[in-house]
């Protein structure tokens, strides 16, 4: 019986830490990753705006469908569906995409800036996001980090172009 009380107390303490600790962390965050991709900006821009081929290089995406009327798409990642809308697009220079689903526990924008370099393209991706539930904020802040999704995305994009380049977080 004592063991049960100890286990329940530890679980209660963990839940308390997740909720109280998470509530002390800001909902909003910003994370930026930069990578150099060995391809011209036109090709990199095409890759990040061609929603239909996302699954061929971004292995986290298991399905993609275009929104009716265009202007965005729905990504399926595991059991989660994320609706994304293009807010701004300047060919080969800039792409701003917003999570357009208010029902998700997170949201925000991804801004991709592309710059031609002697080696190909410098891609600077910034996530300006928010996380609603306090326990998710705690886990993101202390365990996953805010750069993880951006880093995974940029690594996968580099591999698409035959590179093992690593993103630099800032």
Structural write-up:
- The protein is of the alpha+beta class.
- It has one domain (2-169): Alpha-D-Glucose-1,6-Bisphosphate, Chain A, domain 4, CATH 3.30.530.
- Helix content is 35%, strand content 37%.
- The chain is built from five helices and eight strands.
- An eight-stranded antiparallel β-sheet has the order 2-3-4-5-6-7-1-8.
- A hairpin with a 3-residue loop joins β4 (80-90) and β5.
- α1 (2-23) crosses α4 (134-144).
- The termini are far apart.
- The model has no long low-confidence stretch (mean pLDDT 93).
Name the beta content range: 35-45%
What is the count of distinct domains? 1
Major β-sheet annotation: 8 strands, antiparallel
**Backbone structural class:** alpha+beta
Any guess at the CATH architecture? 2-Layer Sandwich
Estimate the mean pLDDT confidence.
93
Radius of gyration: 19 Å
CATH topology: Alpha-D-Glucose-1,6-Bisphosphate, Chain A, domain 4
Give the end-to-end Cα distance, rounded to a whole number of Å. 50 Å
Order of helices and strands: HEHHEEEEEEHHE
Morphology: elongated
Helix percentage range: 25-40%
The counted number of beta strands is 8
State the strand order across the main sheet. Answer: 2-3-4-5-6-7-1-8
């Amino acid at each position: 019986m004592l063991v049960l009380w100890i286990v329940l107390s530890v679980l209660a303490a963990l839940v308390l830490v997740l909720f109280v600790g998470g509530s002390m962390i800001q909902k909003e965050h910003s994370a930026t990753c930069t990578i150099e991709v060995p391809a011209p900006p036109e090709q990199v821009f095409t890759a990040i705006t061609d929603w239909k081929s996302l699954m061929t290089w971004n292995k986290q995406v298991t399905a993609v469908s275009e929104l009716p009327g265009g202007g965005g798409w729905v990504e399926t990642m595991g059991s989660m569906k994320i609706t994304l809308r293009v807010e701004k697009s300047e060919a080969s220079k800039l792409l701003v995409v917003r999570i357009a689903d208010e029902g998700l526990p997170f949201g925000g924008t991804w801004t991709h800036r592309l710059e031609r370099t002697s080696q190909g393209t410098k891609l600077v991706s910034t996530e300006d996001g928010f996380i609603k539930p306090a326990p998710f904020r705690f886990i993101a802040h202390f365990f996953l980090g805010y750069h993880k999704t951006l880093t995974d995305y940029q690594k996968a994009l580099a591999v698409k172009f035959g590179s093992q380049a690593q993103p630099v977080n800032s």
